[in-house]
Specification:
This protein is mainly α. It is built from 7 helices and no strands.
Length: 182
């Protein structure tokens, strides 16, 4: 058993030295336009998924129904989230093409089916390291965070015309470099 433990420590030490060499020699390209190695992507994706699942576990979900909640979440979404994630009939801003990983589109399966309400809430509140997703928990109230989650859930069935009507009703607009999908 002692020999096994010693062998394990030697192998672990060699792995750590190899990792340090890769980092020290600059062999791992951290440029946003160079995708992660498959192993790196898998490790980061698993860490992200497990972290979200574990940290959102004890959050008590709030009811997300009602037009008041949707109306409360809309301006927050439109003024912040839409810039990276787009909206019905609206493309994300140009700079998001250079983000890695790319921000998900909210009507997508990745958001609507793969994330629970509490997981989505946790992401909006805390952000995600190394993705460009900021923490809105430092600038938004609990009620606003849940309203954003409610609005994101509504996006799956919201038409571009309905979204534009909400923009007009709220007196909001698009920036000069933004526009509708071609």
């Amino acid at each position: 058993m002692k020999r096994f433990f010693l062998s394990f420590l030697v192998i672990l030490g060699l792995i750590i030295l190899a990792g340090a060499a890769v980092i020290w020699l600059g062999l791992y390209n951290v440029a946003a336009d160079a995708p992660h190695w498959k192993l790196t992507f898998w490790i980061l994706d698993e860490a992200k998924d497990r972290s979200i699942e574990v940290h959102s576990r004890d959050i008590i979900p709030q009811p997300l129904q009602g037009n008041e909640l949707i109306d409360r979440g809309f301006p927050h979404f439109h003024n912040t989230c839409r810039l990276c994630h787009g909206g019905p009939g609206i493309s994300p801003l140009e700079f998001t093409a250079g983000l890695y990983p790319r921000p998900p589109l909210f009507p997508s399966k990745d958001v609507q089916q793969d994330l629970t309400d509490t997981q989505l809430y946790w992401i909006v509140k805390n952000g995600l390291k190394m993705t460009g997703m900021p923490s809105f928990g430092v600038t938004h109230s609990e009620q606003d965070l849940w309203a954003i989650v409610a609005f994101v859930r509504r996006l799956a069935t919201l038409s571009p015309q309905e979204y534009q009507a909400m923009v007009q009703k709220a007196g909001l607009g698009l920036g000069e470099k933004e526009g509708k999908h071609p």
